[in-house]
Amino acid sequence: MAQEYRKPLPQPTETSRPFWEGARRGELRLQRCRSCGEYVFYPRSLCPHCLSPELGWTTASGRGHVYTYTVVRRPAHPGFRDEVPYVLAIVELEEGPRLTTNIVGVAPEEVRIGMPVEAVFEPATEEITLVKFRPRKET
Amino acid sequence: MELRRSAAIVGIGELRPSRHPDGRPVLELLAEVARLAIADAGLEKGDVDGLLVAPPLAEHSLMWPTVLAEYLRMHPTFAETVDLGGASACGMVWRAAAAIRAGLCRAAVCVTGDVLDPDSFYGPRGGRPARVPGREFESPFGPMGANSGYAMIAMRHMYEFGTTSRQLAKVAVDQRVNANANPDALFFDRPLTIEEVLASPLVCDPLHLYEIVMPCTGAAAVVVAAPEIARRGPHRPVWLLGAAEKLTHMSLAQAPSLTTSPIAYTAPRAFEMAGVTPQDIDLVSVYDCYTITVVVTLEDAGFCPKGRGGPFVEEHDLTYRGDLPLNTHGGQLSFGQAGLAGGMSHVTEAARQLQGRAGQRQVRNCELAFVNGNGGIMSEEVSLVLGAD
Question: pLDDT tens for residues B25-71?
């Protein structure tokens, strides 16, 4: 990377590594419980629905909608100083789980709850690619 | 074993919130406020055999109860660190009562306090930061501490129920009227209007600066004691009549609901244990890190139907002279939030009101109080019903 990355970076664990490897390839991967069939996010060592340790990985559609959001106007972390205002959001995936992310590719004032979005993959470092979301046309 | 009337708050201690920390270690604040609470209860240190401490945010230590007990040369037979964020204070009160009911101790001092330290406010708390999911799946996207979490609750509440910023601002304004009658409040001498709230800068949409709690230095403590001690104390005993606790999530993305909190579980159970309803309550003293917190709490506790919290706060006078006195000390929004002592300020104010020593802001005929402690992003809730004799 030409420029040093100054924002907080995730530190993958053995359990979460497949998620980050997927993100690097442009895939949003979710765990799915082999016992009860529920989708699981964030990655865990056991299913939070039935406590089965038998979790497998699936590739998700990458589609969802904005469940809620805020426009952050003062950064809590100095790494975000040059980015305010930016949109922090919770996206609900088509598969069910919700995740915390940023909405990009749209002016903050145009973001709405319920807006259809799709995953975009933003490399932060060679190892880490963050999964963010941008508006998509409803299909 | 029953908690109802198992113990009473018999003494309170509280340091005046300050925006200008004098450099004292947090341990000295904890010791000072423990001393004040024990003295207020008319007890000697040797009468107190229980010690509960909420871990301060600005300074990190292992084994806070042991550190404080040694400092005070106390030898408690029941000790606990209660780590429920803003709900810690309420969580301490029922735990102390349960320990007393179980015969582990007879009088317990519950201690909270913190020093203002903006540098450490959002930072790691010492030691190697735990490898928890929030660091991996939330921090990279730039959340602004609790601000962005409560902002996202408010945004969703507005979307689902049509709640407005003007309605939320009313909470801050009524509480400021209360603070203007409390010389200890940070904003004692500064009135506030709805227009000023709405004109203050947006920090995290839709939350304005004046809808967000002000961190400060301070400390607060209560002594919870067995009935036979409570009956011979210098003040009216403040009985624990009902209590309930529930935790659901750390990250808001994992919350079962953004607009219904665990209070929907804890408040009805606390009321049921006490044998009362929200309509019987004379004083509402509930966690108010943000304006939206109060609105969601009033709904989930049954003061109004779900989604009606916005119109409800507009229709009711929440000041100490109003029809639903709420956070008569000013709430944390106007009194100040000294770390986890912010949560304790709702307990100390309820005790003051029930004991009839709230001065200018005394609520008339105050017999029953609903107190709620809220931690995290409406993650962990403890509801209490307190009553005078």
Answer: 999 999 999 999 999 999 999 999 999 999 998 888 999 999 999 99
Distance from CA of A42 to the nearest CA of B (A): 7
The 10s digit of each residue's pLDDT in B112-141 is 999 987 666 655 556 678 889 999 999 999
State residue A52's pLDDT score.
96
Burial of B167 (0-12, 13-18, 19+ CB in 10 A): buried
How does DSSP classify residue B55? P
Minimal Cα distance from B207: which residue of A? A70
pLDDT at B305: 98
d(CA B249, CA B380): 8
Please name the member of A7, A11, A70 whose beta carbon is closest to the beta carbon of B131.
A11
List the Cα angle B251/B167/B17 in 5-degree steps.
Answer: 65
Local confidence band at A1 (pLDDT 50, 70, 90 cut-offs): very low
Hey, CA dihedral for B194, B196, B197, B201, is it positive or negative? positive
To test the contact with chain A by mutation, choose from B144, B202, B248 the residue with the greatest count of A C-beta atoms within 10 A, namely B144
Which residue does chain A place closest to B130, by CA atoms? A11
Residues on chain A bordering chain B, Cβ-to-Cβ distance under 8 angstroms: 7-13, 16, 42, 67-77, 79-80, 83, 86, 88-90, 98-102, 108, 113-114, 124, 128, 130, 132
Domain assignment present for A123: yes
Whether residues A10 and B140 touch (CB distance < 8 A) is answered with yes
Which residue positions in chain B have pLDDT lower than 50?
none
Domains and CATH numbers, chain B: 8-117+213-387 (3.40.47.10)
Question: How many domains is chain A partitioned into structurally?
Answer: 1
Question: Would you call the peptide bond into B122 cis, given omega within 30 degrees of 0 as the criterion?
Answer: no
A43-78 pLDDT, tens digit each: 999 999 999 999 999 999 999 999 999 999 998 899
What range defines the domain where residue A53 resides?
17-135
Partners of A87 in the β-ladder = A71, A103
Whether residue A4 lies inside any domain: the answer is no
Contact B137 A13 (CB under 8 A): no
* Distance from the A112 Cα atom to the nearest Cα atom in chain B, whole angstroms: 9
CB contact under 8 A, B203 and A10: no
Inside any domain, residue A10: no
ipTM of this predicted structure = 0.93
Residue at A7 is within a domain: no
Q: Name beta bridge partners: A56.
A: A32
Which among A11, A77, A101 has CB closest to B136?
A: A11
What does the pLDDT read at residue B121? 60
Token pair listed for B119: 């540098």
Average of per-residue pLDDT across A86-114 = 98
